[in-house]
């Protein structure tokens, strides 16, 4: 088997990236309108997207596919107005995830779960403006949703909460991965992931 990405790999990559992103948005869009849920939005995204991501892993046999998915996810998030920091975090955590999956020969359930949890941390890129560009972020929220919404979002996002956001994403990604694995038992067996 060639280690280079083929047309079939790229088609799978494109289809699963869109599926992953659309399912994530189905959770993020309605919940994102409620400021108090902003800190847990990434964790809920990681939980619900565990199913399509674990299905994607049954098709991944080549290094780089998860990295590309991370970059594309960040790009799509940027195009929806959440900033383009997700491209950088998608590349970083996608690459680390690819290395984890490769170390398990793309056949380890344990490495798949850990790989997905690490991959999911790319979502932190969407939070970077709220933590490190506070005034710009607040002004952007105020322009889009009003002063009251902006004040409430920034109130629930103090700097120290970034640790909880990352931990929540990681833990909920493990749970999402376990859910995906349970629902996709036959796919995992067929792909030889044990």
Automatic annotation (TrEMBL):
<keyword id="KW-0472">Membrane</keyword>
<protein>
    <submittedName>
        <fullName>Trep_Strep domain-containing protein</fullName>
    </submittedName>
</protein>
<keyword id="KW-1133">Transmembrane helix</keyword>
<feature type="transmembrane region" description="Helical">
    <location>
        <begin position="12"/>
        <end position="31"/>
    </location>
</feature>
<keyword id="KW-0812">Transmembrane</keyword>
<dbReference type="Pfam" id="PF09605">
    <property type="entry name" value="Trep_Strep"/>
</dbReference>
<feature type="transmembrane region" description="Helical">
    <location>
        <begin position="113"/>
        <end position="134"/>
    </location>
</feature>
<dbReference type="InterPro" id="IPR011733">
    <property type="entry name" value="CHP02185_IM"/>
</dbReference>
<feature type="transmembrane region" description="Helical">
    <location>
        <begin position="154"/>
        <end position="180"/>
    </location>
</feature>
<feature type="transmembrane region" description="Helical">
    <location>
        <begin position="37"/>
        <end position="56"/>
    </location>
</feature>
């Amino acid at each position: 088997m060639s280690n280079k990405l083929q047309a079939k790999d790229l088609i799978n990559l494109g289809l699963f990236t869109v599926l992953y992103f659309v399912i994530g948005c189905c959770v993020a869009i309605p919940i994102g309108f409620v400021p108090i849920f902003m800190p847990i939005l990434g964790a809920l995204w990681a939980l619900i997207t565990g199913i399509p991501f674990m299905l994607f892993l049954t098709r991944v046999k080549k290094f780089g596919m998860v990295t590309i998915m991370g970059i594309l996810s960040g790009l799509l998030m940027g195009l929806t107005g959440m900033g383009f920091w997700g491209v950088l975090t998608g590349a970083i955590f996608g690459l680390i995830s690819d290395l984890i999956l490769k170390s398990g020969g793309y056949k380890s359930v344990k490495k798949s779960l850990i790989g997905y949890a690490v991959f999911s941390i790319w979502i932190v890129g969407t939070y970077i403006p709220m933590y490190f560009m506070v005034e710009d972020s607040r002004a952007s929220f105020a322009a889009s949703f009003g002063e009251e919404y902006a004040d409430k979002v920034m109130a629930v996002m103090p700097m120290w909460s970034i640790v909880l956001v990352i931990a929540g994403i990681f833990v909920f990604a493990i749970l999402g991965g376990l859910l995906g694995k349970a629902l996709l038992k036959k796919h995992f067996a067929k792909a030889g992931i044990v």
